[in-house]
Each structure stands twice: as C-alpha cells, then as structure tokens.
Amino acid sequence: MIKLFMKVIISIFLLSISSCISNQQFQKNQLIGSWKLDNNSAINYPLIVFNKDKSAVFSSRSDTLLRFTFKLKGSTLTLTNVDGINYNCPISKLTYDSLVFDNLLAKKNPQVYLKKGN
After folding, report:
1. How far apart are CA 37 and CA 67, in angstroms?
2. Per-residue CA distances from 106 to 31, 77, 103, 111, 116 (Å)
3. CA 18 from chain center: how many Å?
4. Cβ atoms within 10 Å of 90's Cβ, excluding its own
5. How far apart are the C-alpha atoms of 43 and 45, rounded to whole Å?
6. pLDDT tens, residue order, the chain (118 aa)
7. Contact assessment for residue 8 and residue 23, using Cβ atoms and an 8 Å cutoff
8. Structural fold of domain 25-115
9. Domain-by-domain residue ranges, the chain?
10. pTM exceeding the 0.90 threshold for the entire prediction
C-alpha cells in the first residue's frame, strides 16, 4: 500500500513539473526592442524589431522587409501578415537579452536572437 501511495505521489509530482515547464508564460514587454540573429551567415531575418504598438518588422540581408502585427500568448508568438495570414512561432526561451524560437516562419530549426545593444 505504501509503495502504491509513493508511486502516485511521484507521478503527480512529475506531472506537475512537466506542465510547469511546457506552459511558460512570456510577457509582451520582454519582446519589445531590436533582436539580432546569432548567426552572421543567415540571409533571412537577421534583425527583428518588436514595437510597443504590437507591430513587428523582419529584415533580410537583401532589400526585403516583412511587416506583421504580433500577439504573445504563453510561449507562442502569433504573427499576422498584411493579408491576415497567421504564423504560430513557438518560443523556447525569452530573457532580457536572448530569444530562442523553436521555429520561425519558414525556418524549421531553432533560431537564437540576442537583444541588440546588449
């Protein structure tokens, strides 16, 4: 009986830890500012700017600028382009100086950004 009780307690503990890890809650104000991709050879999105008015500008090394509005819910950033198409971009890390996307738009591998000016 005690072994069963201990297994139940341990299971509950492990479930509560995993739910805390997977339900990270990031705040919009953590995103505000300019973010530089930590990869000097990247062509797409080497600089992203998130503004207080919920607009975002993604630049490329060519002459392309992509404009979005954004919404942050939990650990998912939703970008909406001018045609109303939504892109969900999961964030695995967001601190005052680093931002890591699990995938970002067409990029299906992790993208690491550093806050510009830090």
Report:
1. 17
2. 20, 14, 8, 11, 23
3. 19
4. 15
5. 7
6. 676 555 556 656 554 444 444 457 788 889 999 999 987 767 788 999 999 999 999 998 777 899 999 999 999 999 999 999 999 999 999 999 999 999 898 888 889 999 987 5
7. no
8. Lipocalin (2.40.128)
9. 25-115
10. no
